[in-house]
Specification:
By secondary structure, this protein is α+β, with helices and mostly antiparallel strands. The chain contains 34 helices and 31 strands. Strands 1, 2, 3, 4, 21, 22, 29, 30 and 31 form a nine-stranded antiparallel sheet that branches. Helix 16 runs parallel beside helix 29, helix 18 packs parallel to helix 31 and helix 31 packs antiparallel against helix 34.
């Protein structure tokens, strides 16, 4: 094996050049790395959206949704198919396996939908097949202007703002909220239609056929070719007044005689309010892989430029997730620096040598900076997970350098020159340093291959941490000995053993003499540690106070947009009593984009969302959960309103799907289960997607009367649809303007539709002229489902329960004990989805990663030590960290969550580091210096106890700022730091005594096995 340390000491310039190149690459990678709050966990999901305006959910389910589901379910790699059917829209989401190529899945889905296009109703709009690549709205701005009306502001957002922001790198979508759409309205007079004997459909059809611009071929004129074009479109709404409408009897009448024509706006479908004032707003979403900070900065600069070009125009930021990302980024960087300084302080306190301290300090930047280049190469970002990985390895990164420097200093105190001390000390400690770094890497790398969504989070953590550790090994073997050889000075005499060391060695001697008692006590300690696990609540990700709550108000089906807006304003007025509330942004009829359509659903006039801004957590006494409970108290008396919170934070809600083919049995079971869920204490709002019935007016044609009058069912449906809501958009006539087309809608005004008798008076075309609708059909009130949810091609009901601060694991245990869940009705089944599904994947993946990590550690140690049993001695330290980790989590009231599991996985590698230092020297002393087993172990404890304590305290000091939360909101990082510090304490203190005892047992076992094998292989003398 090449002694790289000796080579670097002999030739320092190549080693320096290697790290110069690595640092330049790392700085370039750091500059290019995007900044985000969480990793871009992209789901390979394709969404098929098919619209048929006015169609009922039941009709769409039968004619569209089931056909789409049956076709796409056969595609390769499909994990699940879910559908949501609302009035006029069928949305089917196809989620593929995580390893599926999204581009190929998108092409396959388009081909599948194309194959059934001919089987779908003729009047459905063209199916829209899209991939889900947007990670939720990044920010929302309100547009304020004293010079423009609502219609002008709406068009300004649709045209100027959208056009400008799409020029900003990383912007994926700009969606307007609130405002209106321009439309030419032709409000027909029912009395005039009856008097002239025509119908709304006839007027609409004539207008659509006449108001067109079509190519008409070409001609040869004067030896040249010219294109023929027929132009029959108007440029102003006023021109339509004199448009001639042909009546059934052959006469003609002016359109202005039949209707009131106005250049106006379409009926509003959404409303946006800022502190009660109507606004036109827009949200901006970023593409995956882009930097949230860069996109936010680019959007702000673009809007500033746009505001300067349009005097009097202001853009007011109303919601943003960028602040959370920025705070997380800066606090992580601060923790990185704080942890590094504390770790170096520990080095100086032990060595009391400034030269040795700054040589150790070099290991930090020279390990972290090149890691940025690898992160950029892997496509990672600077997010909470990767920065957490760098924060937790701060103490580890100086470990190898500490061990090298401490050993060099010890050799200097023997009277050697710095050059001799560096060469010999590096050679002596080389195997131990390599083994400790590779065992840590062996723990982190399997973590990067964990399955499921949780594995997506762990992937960036595992590779980032493993890369930094390997770079720290390169620093320790190349630079640290080389710089020490040329910078350290000779030291005085070798330090004498203090009273603390003598007492420790006496304890080691006693443990060696009573090794079985020592191992028995350590075994009991491990068993007691496992008994603490059921006492620790479990969840996915700890609660984080982001200073913003998304409150959703849901009213009964059929509620009008104006009524929903009024109720939302009543709710906002009631919330004024909460002093911490800074601002309220309200959207009605649309949904917030949090990146997960399962959490937000679809926009409906009966739904409103209030974005409650609580400000910075440090500026208030109550946390977000307490404030959300106060909101529930304030709004508890709102009649007929269902309250719930929409969260983009994982681990906030429990989702449970009840699926089956029998709609009535499904409905009955959902009612029972919802009642049972309310018996679980501590939960917030509990909602289900069980179809609420919406009021309908059912028109049932009488076949005999319709046949006698020559009226078809299709004519009845079309006449009613055009008169009440207008024709399909693609069929409407258009008003051509220089920059856009404005649809011309023919129908009755909203005021006219308030008359309940109007439906029966509608005219439908018959054989001998228009006849009243009531003459050919029975009209009666009815009801139908407002929303139909489907899961894996079955009707389903999705239950969503707000955890309200309760641990997800505890709530899942209580849900499993509910009667309906334990014994579901025949034909029905329960499925964990959402955070509950990820939660199960997380803990399953953790067990797999832990076993794989231990196996990898064993293989690495086997290769390095070339001994089958010595790795078992080293791994004895792993169970010793469990008591400290679980005990620290329990005492500090931290949950067993994703970051805590990261800490436990880290401890597997960290615990083996201390064991390696002891075992490596014991083997060296026993084989190389001829010591007895007992003396070799005592000498190993004497020589390696200090570096073990130094590395442990340095690691603990590096974690201390995270555990104490000295910078920003550390709620996510704290459980990990607490688990690591607790595990470090017990594993270090116990391993210094238990590992020597375990070594003797394993070594004696190896000797016994060798003796047995030797006797079996020794040939027997035939003469005996």
């Amino acid at each position: 094996m090449i002694n790289v340390s000796a080579w670097a000491i002999r030739r320092p310039l190549p080693a320096l050049m290697i790290f110069f190149v690595l640092c330049v690459a790392g700085l370039w990678g750091f500059w290019k790395l995007p900044v985000a709050r969480f990793p871009d966990v992209s789901f390979p999901m394709v969404v098929v959206t098919i619209s048929q305006p006015g169609a009922s959910p039941s009709q769409l389910e039968t004619e569209v949704t089931r056909k789409v589901e049956d076709q796409v379910a056969t595609l390769t790699g499909v994990k699940r198919v879910t559908s949501t059917v609302t009035e006029g829209v069928s949305t089917t989401a196809i989620e593929f396996q995580l390893e599926t190529d999204l581009a190929g899945a998108l092409d396959d889905t388009r081909a599948a939908v194309s194959r059934i296009r001919a089987d779908l109703p003729q009047d459905v709009q063209e199916p829209l097949v899209t991939k889900v690549t947007i990670g939720g709205a990044l920010m929302t701005y309100a547009v304020v202007s004293d010079r423009m009306g609502v219609d002008e502001l709406s068009w300004f957002v649709d045209r100027d703002v959208t056009r400008t922001l799409f020029g900003v790198p990383g912007v994926a979508q700009v969606a307007r909220q609130g405002g209106v759409d321009r439309m030419v309205r032709i409000d027909l007079d029912p009395d005039a239609l009856q008097a002239f004997g025509t119908t709304a459909g006839a007027v609409n059809a004539q207008l659509a056929r006449s108001q067109v611009e079509r190519p008409s071929g070409k001609s040869e004129v004067g030896g040249g070719q010219q294109v023929l074009r027929t132009i029959a479109t108007v440029t102003t709404a006023r021109d339509l007044d004199n448009f001639a409408i042909t009546l059934p009897d052959g006469r003609a009448v002016r359109l202005g005689t039949l209707a009131r024509i106005s250049d106006s706006t379409a009926d509003p479908t959404q409303v946006a309010l800022l502190d009660g004032k109507p606004v036109v707003a827009f949200s901006v979403s970023r593409t995956r892989g882009s930097s949230e900070l860069d996109v936010a900065g680019g959007v702000k600069a673009a809007l500033d430029t746009l505001a300067k070009k349009n005097p009097g125009m202001r853009f007011q930021l109303v919601t943003s997730t960028v602040g959370e990302t920025e705070r997380s980024y800066h606090s992580s960087m601060e923790m990185l620096v704080e942890g590094a300084l504390l770790a170096l302080l520990v080095v100086w306190l032990f060595l009391r040598d400034f030269r040795a301290t700054w040589i150790s300090a070099l290991a930090l930047p020279l390990s972290i900076v090149p890691t940025f280049a690898v992160m950029y190469w892997f496509g990672f970002s600077l997010n909470m997970i990767t920065l957490l990985a760098l924060s937790v390895v701060v103490g580890i990164l100086v470990d190898d350098a500490i061990v090298e420097i401490e050993n060099i200093v010890r050799h200097l105190r023997m009277g050697k020159t710095p050059l001799e001390a560096a060469r010999e000390a590096a050679d002596e400690i080389g195997i131990a340093v390599i083994a400790t770094s590779f065992t840590l890497a062996a723990v982190f790398v399997p973590v990067a291959f964990m399955p499921g969504i949780a594995g997506k989070f762990f992937r960036e953590f595992g590779w980032t941490a493993a890369t930094a550790v390997l770079f720290s090994l390169l620093v320790a073997r190349l630079l640290t000995p080389m710089i020490a050889a040329y910078q350290l000075k000779s030291h005085g005499d070798e330090e004498k053993e203090g009273p603390l060391m003598r007492r420790y060695l006496g304890l080691v001697d006693a443990a060696l003499r009573h090794r079985w008692i020592t191992l028995g006590i350590s075994t009991l300690f491990f068993v007691a540690s496992l008994a603490l696990v059921p006492l620790i609540p479990t969840t996915f990700i700890p609660f984080t106070d982001i200073g913003r709550s998304n409150l959703q108000l849901e009213l009964p089906p059929g509620t009008r947009l104006d009524d929903t807006t009024r109720i939302a304003e009543q709710a906002r007025a009631k919330l004024r009593a909460i002093s911490e509330l800074k601002q309220v942004y309200t959207t009605v009829g649309s949904v917030l984009d949090v990146g997960d359509p399962n959490k937000t659903g679809v926009g409906e006039p009966r739904k409103a969302t209030l974005v409650l801004d609580w400000g910075n957590a440090r500026d208030r006494d109550r946390d977000q959960k307490q404030l959300e409970r106060a909101v529930r108290t304030q709004l508890g008396d709102l009649p007929g309103v269902r309250l719930s919170y929409i969260s983009n934070e994982p681990g906030e809600n429990l989702m449970l799907v009840l699926a089956g083919d029998d709609p009535q049995r499904l409905q009955d079971a959902s009612i029972t289960l919802e009642r049972e869920l309310h018996t679980i204490k501590g939960l917030g709002s509990i909602s289900s997607s069980a179809s609420l019935l919406r009021p309908e007016i059912e028109i049932r044609p009488d076949p005999q009367r319709a046949a006698d009058l020559g009226v078809s069912t299709a004519d009845i449906a079309e006449a009613a649809r055009i008169a009440t809501s207008g024709d399909y958009t693609q069929r409407l006539a258009k008003l051509n303007l220089p920059e856009r087309q404005v649809p011309i809608r023919v129908g009755f005004s909203e005021d006219t539709l308030h008359d309940p008798a109007l439906i029966g008076q509608l005219r439908v075309p018959g054989r001998n002229g228009p006849v009243p609708l009531a003459a050919v059909a029975d009209i009666s009130p009815g009801s139908g489902p407002s929303v139909i949810s489907r899961y894996q091609r079955q009707r389903n009901v999705t239950f969503t329960a707000e955890l309200n601060g309760r641990p997800l694991g505890d709530v899942m245990k209580e849900v499993q004990q509910l009667g309906t869940v334990k014994n579901p009705p025949p034909g029905l089944s329960f499925i964990n989805t959402g955070d509950a599904e990820v939660f199960v994947e997380l803990f399953t993946g953790f067990v797999v990663a832990m076993i794989a990590g231990i196996a990898c550690i064993y293989m690495v140690l086997l290769l390095l030590f070339n001994h089958a049993l010595q790795p078992l001695t080293i791994l004895t330290a792993v169970p010793l960290c469990a008591g400290g980790a679980f005990g620290a989590l329990l005492l500090t009231h931290n949950l067993l969550s994703l970051p805590a599991l990261i800490g436990l996985l880290m401890l597997i590698g960290i615990a083996t580091k201390n064991s390696i230092l002891l075992v490596d020297y014991a083997v060296m002393a026993e084989d190389g210096q001829g010591m007895t087993q007992h003396d070799a172990l005592v000498d190993a404890c004497r020589k390696r106890a200090r570096p073990v304590l130094m590395t442990t305290i340095a690691m603990g000091a590096g974690m201390l700022p995270i555990a104490l939360g000295l910078s920003g909101d550390s709620s996510f990082r704290r459980p990990m730091a607490v688990a690591v510090i607790g595990g470090l304490i017990t594993s270090t203190l116990l391993s210094l005594v238990v590992i020597p005892a375990a070594y003797t047992v394993v070594d004696d076992l190896g000797g016994w096995m060798r003796a047995k094998l030797h006797r079996k292989t020794t040939p027997v003398d035939a003469s005996v």
